[in-house]
Amino acid sequence: MASRTTHRTNKSKPARGNGFPAQRNGRGVARYYLLYELLSGALNDGTIPAGAALPSEPDLVTRYKLSRTTVRRALARLEEEGRIIRRRGSGTFARQIRKPPRIHLDLHSYFDNVPELASQTTTSVVKFEFGAVPASLRELQPQLGQKALIIQRVHRFHGTPYALTTAYVPERMGRKIKRNTLEKSSLLTILDHLGQGGSRISKTEYTTSAVAANALATKRLDVALGLPLLRTRAILSDAHGDLHAIIESISRPDRFSVRAALERKGNSNSQWRLKR
């Protein structure tokens, strides 16, 4: 009698189709945020207009290959934020909400604009200490050296945090700054008078980019982990080329924006420049 041989085959799990890719760590949380951000974006850009119905829970479960619990967590977050309304037996609908107040920074009038911004906002210092300078900043500006005064502040507009700024001040200049002076004058006003012989800031290099919210931004700005944020960097120096500070800022795009007005004078061959 011939013996039977059992062959075991390793069957791979079915593909997730249009679902979200699995994350190695914290999969449930990561997938919850992905759905939250997707629905949040649809509400923001009008893909789901005010008053319109959102896909049902079963539809979201099927479409994105998620558990019912994960879907409910994403919807609960949107409901807590007042962006959707859930009617038992009817479904989930987008709410008509007022746009939150937004603050603007005009690059063409940067230093003139700062005092006005300061009058509209409140600032709290969350870090004031000498520490190691990140390698990326040392490569960008060797004048910073290995150690600098690090000043980290949270900025609020109408009581809501909109920006987290981190200033790196060269150690020799940082020794001249006292924490309590930040309560009386803006940081830019203080930095403006730290140069040799009172030399003031005369050059600012300003760059913008985007970054995903990390754990620190989540805590300080009250945003979801991974949310896109506006990142800006200002390099401040005087007429002698002495660096006064590098100020990096991460901001909520729903509460803060950067604007610039350009102009050109003379004939059509003249160059475009920031409006003065």
Question: Which SSEs are present, and which pair or pack?
Answer:
Blueprint: H1 27-44, H2 57-64, H3 68-80, E1 84-87, E2 91-94, E3 103-106, H4 110-120, E4 121-132, H5 135-140, E5 147-157, E6 160-170, H6 171-174, H7 187-191, E7 201-212, H8 215-221, E8 228-238, E9 243-251, E10 256-259, E11 262-263, E12 273-274
Parallel strand pairs: 3-10
Antiparallel strand pairs: 1-2, 4-5, 5-6, 6-9, 7-8, 8-9, 11-12
Helix pairs in contact: 1-3
Features:
single chain, 276 residues, alpha+beta, six-stranded antiparallel β-sheet, two-stranded antiparallel sheet, 8 helices, 26% helix, elongated, disordered N terminus
Could you explain how this protein is built, in words?
By secondary structure, the protein is α+β, with helices and mostly antiparallel strands. It is 26% helix and 31% strand. It has helices at 27-44, 57-64, 68-80, 110-120, 135-140, 171-174, 187-191, 215-221; strands at residues 84-87, 91-94, 103-106, 121-132, 147-157, 160-170, 201-212, 228-238, 243-251, 256-259, 262-263, 273-274. The strands form 4 sheets. A 6-stranded antiparallel beta sheet has the order 4-5-6-9-8-7. A two-stranded antiparallel sheet has the order 1-2. A two-stranded parallel sheet has the order 3-10. Strand 5 and strand 6 (160-170) form a beta hairpin.
